[in-house]
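Appendix B. Raw example, untouched.
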Amino acid sequence: MLKQDLRTAILQLKERNQSIRAIARALDLDRDSVRAVLRAGTSEVPVLARKELAEDWHDEILAQFKACGGNLLRVHEEVVEQGAALSYQALTGYCRRHRIGTRPKVPSGEYHFQIGEEMQHDTSPHQVKLGGRVRLLQSASLTLCHSRMLFQQYYPTFDRFWCKVFLTEAFKFFGGTCSRCMIDNTHVVVSLGTGRDMIPAPEMEAFAERFGFVFRAHELGHANRSAHVERNFDYQEGNFLAGREFKDWADLNQRARAWCEKANGSFKRCIHAKPIDLFAQERTLLRPLPMWVPTVYRLEFRTVDSYGYVNVRCNRFSVPDTMVGRRVEIRESADLIEVFEGQALVATHANPLDARDQKFTIPEHRRPRGEGRPKAGPGPEEAELLKAEPRLAAYVVALKEHPPRRVSTSLRRLLTMVRDYPRQPLLRAVDTALAFGMFDLDRLDRMVLKNIDSDYFVLGEAVPLPFETKDPGGPSER
């Protein structure tokens, strides 16, 4: 079948009175083909009216397509069982040509953005050679739609915490934000809904409000709406990651940032300019950053275990061993693990992004070998008791060392005796008890009472009871 341009050339050469042999030689064709075009007298390519193999089964294909839920493999099996001599490729080709089960493609159109109007954010998994082995990492990217300025970073995973970390770094890189951030409908920002009805998570909505922009999601099936950021992922994989190996996370993200600066300074045919040149104008209309941009951190609470460690993300981090059993506050940022007790910072560790089931110990958190645990200070009962009567210090020390005994209960009872009994009889009884090694407070209590019964409990004259009253006249005689 000759193409239309060859048919037009044959007709034009015939109008110049060229012979069929000369036309065939000039166009490298056979003379029969030249004669056929001349007989047709037109340059239009004729349409071959040929019956398709599946045409007789059109109605049955439609019925089976509906019954099989759109599965063309099952449709082919059912039609073949009924006697159709069709291959699977012939069936699928017929369905494509007659638009059975397919939707006509609609041109995506073009999107034009004003200066500072929109930025697009998305993530994509990439194979990266990190630390000597290939790992699947999440690449996060943010693009300004007007100037096409690009910023990217890599993370082990991507949740709302890492999303806020990345966007904060991107906003600092650009020095401001656009009024709208376009995302897709599967993004971690989305709480529920799609497209115009998308509702962001409350923490992400508050994050966007701090920086003065709003999150928006494109409609389902309109992936081209965020084409500016999607196009950059292929660019990163084919340019930045190709043939590169990275030592660690710091090396990877530092080189990714340098690559973004280089890419932003290169000429782009789609915009006929360098992004950095267009950004010089767009930067003046970006929404400025807040006066103070706080560090993004994830807040958790832990109880220090009996070994002096706290567990964060399947890793254990040391704290001073004097804090065993205490409840602490953990602030996990992109680079640090910080441990607070109340408002005081008690420990700081580097955040190991790719570590798992490991233990990190700061030497200062552990005493040298052979150095015992520091002795605890006096408790509240002992402090109050010695404050009330310092001369009981020797007995208190001996009482604490005499097992088995609940020291706090004994000290509270001894404090009650100090408050209730005269001081001198109490001290005499305590000295006697200390000399003989008696620490039974019931016996001590009886000793104190024995010391004070004649001095402090003075009884008056005995009052006779009613049944003991005698008749002055003497006993009566019957």
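End of appendix B.
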